[in-house]
Design goal:
mainly beta; seven-stranded mixed beta sheet; 0% helix; elongated
């Protein structure tokens, strides 16, 4: 089994910053990609940022220039630095990871989510 634990959410004023972290543990052989999604009340879950094992990144247009995703392959962790936060960034942020476990079976695992609230 592969487990993910997110941390770092909270309440911040518009224009402020937060740093989310995601730690992956368990029977891991590899982590191909790590992705942050978010879900606002009444809306569908959307991709926020993604990073591959090689360091390639992808961002939603709405967060480009404000959010930065990074990862530490040795520690199986990633961080999402969120700057210049806006009220529309409010939502539950979920970390996901995909790769192969120690039996070389493909997996896609999710964390339980962390709440980010940006007040105006």
């Amino acid at each position: 089994q592969v487990q993910l634990v997110e941390s770092g959410g909270g309440l911040v004023q518009a224009g402020g910053s937060l740093r989310l972290s995601c730690a992956v543990s368990g029977r891991i052989f590899s982590i191909r990609a790590m992705t942050w999604y978010r879900q606002a009340p009444g809306k569908q879950r959307e991709l926020v940022a993604n990073i591959t094992s090689g360091g390639s990144t992808n961002y939603a247009d709405s967060v480009k220039g404000r959010f930065t995703i990074s990862r530490d392959n040795a520690k199986n962790t990633n961080n999402l630095q969120m700057n210049s936060l806006k009220p529309e960034d409010t939502g539950v942020y979920y970390c996901s990871a995909e790769g192969r476990d120690s039996d070389y079976v493909l997996y896609e695992s999710w964390g339980q989510g962390t709440q980010v609230t940006v007040s105006s």
